[in-house]
Amino acid sequence: MQFTSILAIYSLFWVLSAFLVLPFGVRTPDESGEDMVPGQAHSAPSNFRPGKVLIRATILSVVLFGLYYTNYVNGWIGPEDLNFFGRPPE
């Protein structure tokens, strides 16, 4: 696998991981007991910490990409293993 392919696939894993970890640990003003700012949505986070999101996303993406690359090298699961419908008719 080329380095550019590794970088592209890792970037996809990182973006997916960022969206997966984004809602964890976020609290609304009602949950945290803070006052609402005029015009603020009730669902807007009051304690958003982008640094934690970056760290969590990076850790998760390293683990997921490590599993992906290990599978790529060892060939544990291939396209033929994911064929749920059998062979196409001839």
Would you give an account of this structure?
By secondary structure, the protein is mainly alpha-helical. The chain has one domain (3-82). 53% of the residues lie in helices and 0% in strands. It has helices at residues 3-21, 29-32, 50-74. The chain is elongated. It starts with a helix and ends in a 16-residue tail after the last helix. The mean pLDDT is 91.
Features:
0% strand, 90 residues, mainly alpha, single chain
Work out the radius of gyration: 20 Å
What is the terminal-to-terminal distance? 33 Å
Number of helices: 3
Number of beta strands: 0
Give the topology string: H per helix, E per strand. HHH
Number of domains: 1
Uncertain residue ranges: none
Short description:
With about 90 residues, this protein is mainly α. The chain has helices at about 5-20, 30, 50-75.
Topology summary:
Blueprint: H1 3-21, H2 29-32, H3 50-74
